[in-house]
Inverse folding.
């Protein structure tokens, strides 16, 4: 009479072991187990306070080679027959047996667990806006997975799971959920609860119409840890902080410069990161994955392509193989070069800069070039065309307009030669801010040579640097992937 819960786990594997045994008595036990299940479920039907929870999985995608072995073992005819009979027995007493949630119901269950009430008119408005977005993508031939395949049906899922976007639910349930340690429903609830709390305590919650992969506040360590720590991927925390999950990260700096309103570089990197947590056999996010997890109504997929491409020029762990974007633990070419730059002495940078200046500005025909004149005496008073190129180390700027000549050059102008006339001398000096950028470029060149040449093969494909060639348009990249 007291409430009773009976849990039966790994039933399929147990039946397989019995049904494939070489012992006749053990194989007979498999059939007896089916009969026992029938009796158990009939008894549960007659007892209102009894509930039975069972799993009858035929395999899992959480492991690599082990999954293949299990699938081959489950292909045994006898084992499949026993599992079919067990499923048939369990389906008979419908009054006592509940079924697990379907994919389209998961979002609604999560929101019911996290929110006491939801603004249904707002949910309908959001669903309509996203339906129009995905219908437009479908008309343009831009793939966004299930979102562009069935815009109306996808919008229905969004409305049922509002404020959670279906791309967020699918990634947590299908990509990260099967990983050992994540605990599917409990792990998803923990991460979403941490995300909602962090957004509510911050300043950006009111700006979000829907919570998608690209909107999760992964800058909060607790939110990142709710995914990475449970599945043993803590090593991705450092790359996340370096590339997008900190105010000083590469994506954040890029957004501050170019996309301060929509923060598209950071949002795209968040989507890539969460798809990268899943690991093998296909780590990372395809372009349809990125669009589904990042795009908002009114945004263009080309803008997301541009943001990812720009971030890849700076990021230390973001890479792409042409089909999928992913955030990896190993450093890419940008990080390797940055590490080598730190090892280049300043004297080498100065020498390299001086060599380049002398190579670019050289005496040619009637033009005589005088490099780094230290005093007026270095400029002979002769009837010849001369160009004075001042050393970058001798010329400084203090916020003066570019039209104002630097003091080092002005000292030569009022001087008079033997003829009594003022000197008319073209002079060249570095522009404000140019020295710092030039030194960085020269340090990068020295670092590349330290890595093994001007363009080592391993740096061409690791990310960040591209071999010379025609750059594909976003449309061409999408067609190539399709």
């Amino acid at each position: 009479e007291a409430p009773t819960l009976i849990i039966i786990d790994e039933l399929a594997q147990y039946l397989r072991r019995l049904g494939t045994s070489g012992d006749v008595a053990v194989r007979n036990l498999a059939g007896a187990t089916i009969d026992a299940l029938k009796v158990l479920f009939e008894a549960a039907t007659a007892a209102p306070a009894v509930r039975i929870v069972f799993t009858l999985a035929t395999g899992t995608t959480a492991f690599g080679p082990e999954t293949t072995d299990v699938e081959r073992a489950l292909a045994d005819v006898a084992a499949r027959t026993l599992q079919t009979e067990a499923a048939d027995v369990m389906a008979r007493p419908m009054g006592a047996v509940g079924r697990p949630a379907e994919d389209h119901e998961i979002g609604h269950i999560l929101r019911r667990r996290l929110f006491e009430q939801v603004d249904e008119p707002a949910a309908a408005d959001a669903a309509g806006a996203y339906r129009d977005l995905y219908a437009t993508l479908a008309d343009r031939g831009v793939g966004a997975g299930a979102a562009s395949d069935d815009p109306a049906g996808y919008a229905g899922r969004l409305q049922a799971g509002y404020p959670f976007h279906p791309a967020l639910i699918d990634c947590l349930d299908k990509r990260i959920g099967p990983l050992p340690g994540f605990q599917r429903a409990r792990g998803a609830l923990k991460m979403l609860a941490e995300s909602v709390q962090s957004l509510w305590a911050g300043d950006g919650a009111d700006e979000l119409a829907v919570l998608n992969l690209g909107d999760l506040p992964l800058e909060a360590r607790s939110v990142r840890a709710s995914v990475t720590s449970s599945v043993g991927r803590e090593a991705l925390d450092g790359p996340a902080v370096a590339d997008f999950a900190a105010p000083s990260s590469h994506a954040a700096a890029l957004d501050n410069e170019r996309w301060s309103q929509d923060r598209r570089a950071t949002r795209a990197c968040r989507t890539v990161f969460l798809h990268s947590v899943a690991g093998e056999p296909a780590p990372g996010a395809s372009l349809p994955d990125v669009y589904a997890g990042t795009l908002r109504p009114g945004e263009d997929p080309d803008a997301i392509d541009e943001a990812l491409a720009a971030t890849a020029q700076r990021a230390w762990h973001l890479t792409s193989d042409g089909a999928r974007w992913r955030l990896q633990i190993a450093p890419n070419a940008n990080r390797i070069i940055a590490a080598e730059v730190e090892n280049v002495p300043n004297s080498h940078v100065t020498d390299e800069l001086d060599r380049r200046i002398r190579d670019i500005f050289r005496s040619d025909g009637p033009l005589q070039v005088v490099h780094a004149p230290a005093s007026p005496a270095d400029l002979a008073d002769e009837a010849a065309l001369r160009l004075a190129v001042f050393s970058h180390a001798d010329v400084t700027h203090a916020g003066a307009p570019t039209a104002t000549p630097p003091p080092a050059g002005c000292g030569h102008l009022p001087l008079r030669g033997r003829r009594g006339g003022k000197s008319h001398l073209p002079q060249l000096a570095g522009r404000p801010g140019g020295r710092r950028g030039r030194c960085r470029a020269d340090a990068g060149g020295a670092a590349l040579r330290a890595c093994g040449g001007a363009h080592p093969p391993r740096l061409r494909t690791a990310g960040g640097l591209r071999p010379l060639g025609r750059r594909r348009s976003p449309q061409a990249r999408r067609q190539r992937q399709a």
About this structure: The longest helix spans residues 24-45. The two ends are 59 Å apart (CA to CA).
